[in-house]
Every structure is written in structure tokens, then in C-alpha cells.
């Protein structure tokens, strides 16, 4: 079954065709980064307009790349939550028009669950596993019992992990997206130059939660206070020290979840999953079985939407032409193991 997936929740306009939830027949990801770069962040108004302009050509290029005709599409899956409403509406409207014209089933897909499904396009995932989703908008540690069932264990109480990278880079004028720039700079820096404070959220229901606003404030407003006096610090050193603090914080919570649940399989997803320090730190924990999608499947992409869409359709789910969008994460239990 060939599912056509559409992703337009943020600043990537992507269309893919995936066979039977596993095999990517074609995928196009048109990045809007250069249009948001001057503002050091995604401007929702620009994002939705670019999606409107690009969605049809991106769809046509994808079909061409797959060497498929319209009638070879068996169903249409679209990312409809969470994300920027104006951007989601473009993908959802296009998906509805296509499903209606082709007389094929339509299915709305949760973008968060799709990030945690992305690895399945390359590796057979075994459930249950601990999911670690780190992106520009979300920071989630969860237990996954199937590709549909997510129990949120921990999250951020303020900024998302990628957002903290973006804000720190924006403050210093290092460039956009901040995570990519900081990752690159940190490779040349020394993380011992600064020692940033860890938030003290660690009890009861906050056992797996993180907070990035304190770290961000420390880096941006109180930098000198945390410098190791033995160092004459460079921007690369600031980047390396910040990156280590940001990643160590979330890895600490993840290890807690692994220990408490006894589940040692970990699947990572989202843009920050491309971070080289994170990959190195998790690889060094030999008690963990960690799965990282390849970098292209970490960031926003339509293949993960088509893949999870197939699984939803296979269990009988369908959406009507009244399918709506939702800006926020909805419908998941928060619980404690
Ligand atoms: O998943 P994604 O493409 O879009 C959202 O759904 O948000 O994630 C984008 C985020 C941005 O905040 C970006 O700075 C961050 O992922 N990012 C990284 C790296 N590559 C992208 N953060 C740290 N290290 C990286 N290598
Ligand atoms: Zn995403």
C-alpha cells in the first residue's frame, strides 16, 4: 500500500511516498531556513505562505522521483497536530483536496508520534521502548508501548531543548538554526571553560522533567559568573559548555526513566537527535540499546508521517474532510512508572 505523506507543521515543506509503512519510495524536503534566517527563528506568517507556494511543486517532484502516477497513491496521510496552525492548515487542506480528488482514504497523523516512528523506516523497532523526542518545539521523555501509545514521563517546564539552542545562538549572533551552529562550534571548543548550574527539579512528579530557562539565562546574562578562572574562553568554548549542560540535563532524566522502568531500549527523534555530543554520550552507555534515525529522518520529514499513517489506516482509522488542526500536543496520558 503506497501512502503519500505530507508534512508542513513548521518550516519544512515535505512530501513522501512510503510503501507498507517501511519503504521510502521517494521523499522531497524543501527547507525554508534561508527565509527565516534573517529573523533567527521561524516566522509563522512566512512559513505558511511558503508552504502555500511550494506544496504543489513539492508534491509533483515527489511523484516524479518515485516514478509514480496519481492513481498509484492508495491513501493520503497528513501531519495535523501539533505545530504552527497556519502552516498545518496548508498541508491539511492540500491533503483533503487530494484525497477527495483521488477518492482515497485520508488520515491525520500526530507529528510527535511520527518523530518516534521515524527510526522504524530504517530499523525494526521493538516495543516497549523509552522515547526521547528533542526538537525546536518539544522535549519529551516517554514510554512507547506501540507506535500509537505514548505515556509521557517527563517534559520541559519552559523552553524546548532545540529552542534553547536557537535562543542562545540568536543572542550571540552565531546564526540559525542554533543547534546546527552550536554543534559545529562546540566541536572546536572546550566544555570545561564554563560550569553552568543544573535546575533543581527532581522530585515527585517532576522526576523526569527538565527546565532550560535557567541555563539560557545563565549563558546569556550571567556568563562571566560561571567561567572557570583558568580559561580565557572563546565563543567555541561557550558553545561547548552550553551544549554539554543542555544535553547532560536531558540524558540524566532519560537514565532515570531507564532505571525506573527497566526498559533499556531507547529511540531518539526530532531535530536535536542530530546532535553529535548527544549521540556520543548515549553511545558510551553500553547498557542502553539506542536507536537514532539518520539525520534526514531526525528533522521534520513526510516519510515519518506516511509511515505512521499506514499503521493507523491498517488498524482501521480514517478521517473525514472535516479533519482539523491542533497547535498543541493533545490526547496523551502523563504518568509515572
Ligand atoms: O524536529 P525539528 O526539525 O523541528 C521541530 O519540530 O521543531 O527540530 C528543529 C530543532 C531546532 O531547534 C534546531 O536548532 C535543532 O532542532 N537542531 C539541533 C541540531 N540540528 C538541529 N540541535 C542540536 N544539535 C544539532 N545538530
Ligand atoms: Zn518536528
Distinct ligand kinds: 5'-O-[(R)-(carboxyoxy)(hydroxy)phosphoryl]adenosine, zinc ion
Proportion in β-strands: 15-25%
Distance between the termini: 37 Å
Helix content: 40-55%
Radius of gyration: 20 Å
CATH class category of the largest domain: Alpha Beta
Mean pLDDT over the full residue set:
95
What is the strand arrangement across the widest sheet? 10-9-6-7-8-11
The secondary-structure class comes to alpha/beta
- Counted up, domains total 2
CATH homologous superfamily caption of the largest domain = ATPase, nucleotide binding domain
The CATH architecture category of the largest domain equals 2-Layer Sandwich
> With helices defined by DSSP (H or I, 4 residues minimum), what is the helix count?
11
Find the count of extended strands (DSSP E, 2+ residues).
11
Low-confidence stretches: none
Largest sheet: 6 strands, mixed
CATH topology of the largest domain: Nucleotidyltransferase, domain 5
Would you list the SSEs in sequence order as H and E?
A: EEEHHEHEHEEEHHHHEHEHHE
Amino acid at each position: 500500500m503506497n501512502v503519500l505523506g505530507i508534512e508542513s507543521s513548521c518550516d519544512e515543506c515535505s512530501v513522501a511516498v512510503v510503501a507498507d509503512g517501511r519503504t521510502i519510495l521517494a521523499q522531497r524536503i524543501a527547507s525554508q531556513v534561508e527565509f527565516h534566517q534573517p529573523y533567527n527563528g521561524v516566522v509563522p506568517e512566512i512559513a505558511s505562505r511558503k508552504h502555500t507556494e511550494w506544496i504543489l511543486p513539492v508534491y509533483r517532484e515527489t511523484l516524479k522521483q518515485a516514478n509514480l502516477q496519481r492513481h498509484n497513491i492508495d491513501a493520503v496521510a497528513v501531519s495535523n497536530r501539533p505545530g504552527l496552525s497556519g502552516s498545518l492548515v496548508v498541508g491539511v487542506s492540500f491533503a483533503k483536496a487530494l484525497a477527495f480528488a483521488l477518492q482515497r482514504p485520508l488520515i491525520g497523523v500526530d507529528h510527535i508520534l511520527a518523530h518516534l516512528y521515524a527510526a522504524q523506516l530504517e530499523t525494526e523497532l521493538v516495543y516497549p521502548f523509552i522515547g526521547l523526542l528533542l526538537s525546536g518545539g518539544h522535549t519529551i521523555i516517554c514510554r512507547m508501548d506501540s507506535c500509537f501509545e505514548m505515556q509521557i514521563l517527563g517534559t520541559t517546564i519552559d523552553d524546548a531543548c532545540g529552542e534553547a539552542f536557537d535562543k542562545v545562538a540568536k543572542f550571540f549572533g552565531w546564526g540559525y538554526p542554533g543547534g546546527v551552529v552550536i554543534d559545529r562550534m562546540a566541536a572546536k571548543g572546550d566544555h570545561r571553560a564554563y560550569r553552568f548550574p543544573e535546575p533543581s527539579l527532581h522530585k515527585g512528579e517532576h522526576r523526569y522533567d527538565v527546565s532550560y530557562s535557567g541555563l539560557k539565562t545563565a549563558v546569556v546574562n550571567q556568563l562571566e559568573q560561571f567561567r572557570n578562572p583558568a580559561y580565557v574562553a572563546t565563543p567555541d568554548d561557550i558553545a561547548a559548555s552550553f551544549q554539554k549542560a543542555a544535553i547532560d540535563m536531558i540524558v540524566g532524566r532519560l537514565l532515570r526513566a531507564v532505571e525506573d522502568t527497566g526498559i533499556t531500549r531507547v529511540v531518539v527523534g526530532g531535530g536535536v537527535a542530530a546532535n553529535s555530543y548527544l549521540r556520543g554520550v548515549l553511545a558510551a552507555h553500553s547498557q542502553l540499546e539506542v536507536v537514532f534515525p539518520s539525520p534526514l529522518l531526525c528533522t521534520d520529514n513526510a516519510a515519518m508521517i506516511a509511515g505512521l499513517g499506514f499503521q493507523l489506516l491498517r488498524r482501521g482509522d480514517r478521517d473525514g474532510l472535516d479533519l482539523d488542526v491542533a497547535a498543541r500536543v493533545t490526547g496523551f496520558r502523563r504518568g509515572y512508572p
